[in-house]
Specification:
The protein is an alpha+beta fold. It is about 20% helix and about 35% strand. It contains 3 helices and 4 strands, in the order H-H-H-E-E-E-E. It has helices at about 30-35, 45-60, 60-65, and strands at about 85-95, 100-115, 115-130, 130-140.
Length: about 140
């Protein structure tokens, strides 16, 4: 019997009327889509984290680069076409509100790769740069 490499279902397109990939109970247009389009800015580090997850789902590299701290931002991004993002859990936050200059967000992002479920767990650091929240890096 031959063994075939399991293929992922393609990531469904993120439409304005789709449920927001970040898990909040709003449409994409009402939630992260407003941040991606530039019509609003993420008010907290957690909302920026959620919008960055949604940008991975929507393959919005420009938004990801725009919301990355200037000292840690890569020159380019490559999306893995075999990853299908399936959900986001926010595990904890520190700081990161309108009254803070920095904060952390611990999250678990779930995905499917070659038919197998997986997750990425990270504690991310965020700071304000020019008044806007930006992603700095993962805490070791």
């Amino acid at each position: 019997m031959s063994r075939r490499k399991a293929r992922n279902r393609p990531q469904p397109p993120v439409l304005a009327t789709s449920p927001c990939p970040c898990g909040r109970q709003q449409t994409y247009a009402q939630c992260c889509g407003a941040f991606h389009s530039g019509s609003a800015a993420a008010p907290t580090a957690e909302r920026l984290m959620r919008s960055r997850y949604s940008a991975f789902v929507a393959l919005d590299g420009a938004y990801l680069l725009r919301t990355w701290h200037s000292t840690t931002r890569p020159r380019t991004l490559d999306f893995d076409p075999d990853i299908r993002w399936t959900g986001l859990e926010i595990l904890s936050t520190t700081g990161g509100s309108a009254f803070h200059q920095d904060g952390t967000v611990e999250f678990r992002a779930h995905y499917e790769l070659h038919g197998e479920a997986g997750s990425q767990h990270e504690l991310s650091r965020f700071v304000r740069q020019d008044g806007a929240w930006v992603y700095v890096d993962a805490v070791e």
